[in-house]
């Protein structure tokens, strides 16, 4: 029996040396090119599906949609929300009626 | 011959200069022993009108700088007495003109600044007692006369030296006479209370710059002003308007003394309306509303050209 065969046979599995990362594939290897081709094919399929959706949206006839009913507002949580809910706006500045300034006492 | 070796005497003779080596040595030693601290020149005084990094303005008003300034106040009634009490800490010299006498009803409910011990006294003398006692340094010139007793030329002399004139009287004829007279001379501040003291106003006239009192109130004659006698009003409401008027006067006086611009309020808005409770100008509660006024075309007081 050759020594390596002995090793495999004798060592329990838990004592196996840690796996070594496989060497990087050669970028120009047929496997890499094949993967690239697959990815590009998948992308082109997705693009075709999207363009079909866009065409469908562009050519659809407009539909009259009833306005959505506003949802009932939940009670405001902060002062700012409360102000917003009350629609508080600064009161418009009013000019004084100067004839009302003429009844005076000292 | 070097010129430094010879000294010209008063009679014209030239005397050879012989330096005394011992005296020179001692002088040199003394110079090192009594070495004086280097003289550091003080920074040049800043222009009073320059706004430097300390941000001088009427908002940084230093009330001590107003001491000795002169004011003239017409009227020592409810507004006038509260006004003078508020102005007391500034240490002004104040001319006060009023011929009234303190009566028991004046001392009730804080309507005036007088107290019951002063009933029967002339108002101006009672005020002099009170303000000069409470604020040492403040001087009240008490004039127990009706304003109509003082002729125009005398009034003019009085107001010409004043930083500002306060018009806290309710006689319509006299209000307009004094306002017209003061307008070209110095700053005029006219505080007044309206019915039941719910509101009040302060008109501020800067000589020849802002409109006169007539234009600010949009009136032509004294009959347009109605005088409310014995009007019930809360003392605090009267004091609130008087306090605002006093603050305006302090700003004007500080601006004139220190040469600083008035920044606490907009001086172009010369009508200040004070609401002591909810009002259409301040719907949420008490508030202050400022408005500008316009010189009416052809007004003889403002000297504005006719349309």
How many E-type strands of chain B?
11
How many helices of chain B does DSSP assign? 7
Helix/strand/pairing category of chain A: mainly alpha
Overall pLDDT of chain A, averaged? 75
Straight-line distance between termini of chain B: 87 Å
Q: State the assembly state of the protein chains.
A: heterodimer
Spans of at least 5 consecutive residues with low confidence of chain B: 41-56
Fraction in beta strands of chain A? under 5%
Q: Enumerate the strands of the largest sheet of chain B in spatial order, edge to edge or round the barrel.
A: 5-4-3-6-7-8-10-11
What class do helices, strands and sheet pairing of chain B give? alpha/beta
| CATH topology type of chain B | Rossmann fold
Reading the helices and strands of chain A in chain order gives HHHE
Rg on CA atoms of chain B, Å: 29 Å
Order of helices and strands of chain B: EEHEHEHEHEHEEHEHEE
Amino- and carboxy-terminal Cα gap of chain A: 127 Å
Taking pLDDT < 50 over at least 5 consecutive residues as the criterion, the unreliable ranges of chain A are: none
The major pleated sheet of chain B works out as:
8 strands, mixed
């Amino acid at each position: 029996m050759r020594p390596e065969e002995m090793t495999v046979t004798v060592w329990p599995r838990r004592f196996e040396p840690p796996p070594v990362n496989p060497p990087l594939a050669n970028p120009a290897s047929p496997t890499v090119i094949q993967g690239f081709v697959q990815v590009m094919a998948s992308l082109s399929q997705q693009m075709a599906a999207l363009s079909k959706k866009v065409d469908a949206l562009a050519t659809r006839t407009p539909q009259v949609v009833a306005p959505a009913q506003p949802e009932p507002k939940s009670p405001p949580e902060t002062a700012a929300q409360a102000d917003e809910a009350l629609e508080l706006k600064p009161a418009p500045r009013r000019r004084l009626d100067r004839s009302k300034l003429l009844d005076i006492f000292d | 011959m070097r010129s430094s070796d010879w000294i010209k005497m008063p009679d014209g003779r030239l005397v050879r200069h012989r330096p005394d080596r011992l005296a020179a040595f001692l002088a040199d030693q003394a110079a090192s022993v009594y070495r004086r601290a280097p003289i550091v020149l003080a920074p040049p005084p800043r222009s009073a009108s320059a706004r430097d990094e300390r941000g001088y303005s009427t908002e940084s008003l230093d009330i001590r700088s107003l001491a000795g300034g002169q004011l003239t106040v017409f009227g020592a009634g409810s507004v006038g007495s509260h006004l003078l009490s508020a102005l007391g800490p500034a240490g002004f010299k104040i001319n006060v003109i009023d011929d009234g006498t303190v009566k028991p009803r004046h001392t009730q409910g804080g309507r005036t600044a007088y107290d019951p011990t002063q009933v029967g006294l002339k108002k101006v003398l009672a005020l002099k007692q009170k303000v000069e006692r409470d604020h040492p340094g403040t001087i009240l010139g008490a004039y127990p006369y009706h304003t109509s007793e003082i002729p125009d030329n005398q009034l003019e002399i009085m107001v010409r030296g004043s930083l500002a004139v306060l018009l806290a009287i309710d006689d319509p004829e006299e209000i307009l006479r004094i306002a017209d007279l003061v307008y070209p001379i110095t700053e005029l501040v006219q505080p007044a209370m309206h019915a039941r003291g719910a509101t009040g106003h302060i008109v501020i006239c800067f000589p020849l710059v802002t409109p006169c009192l007539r234009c600010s109130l949009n009136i032509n004659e004294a009959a347009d002003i109605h005088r409310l006698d014995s009007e019930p009003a809360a003392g605090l409401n009267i004091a609130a308007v008087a306090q605002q008027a006093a603050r305006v006067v302090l700003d004007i006086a500080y601006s004139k003394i220190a040469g600083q611009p008035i920044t606490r309020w907009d001086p172009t808005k010369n009508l200040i309306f004070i609401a002591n409770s909810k009002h259409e100008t301040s719907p949420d509660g008490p508030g202050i509303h400022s408005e500008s006024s316009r010189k009416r075309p052809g007004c003889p007081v403002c000297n504005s050209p006719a349309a």
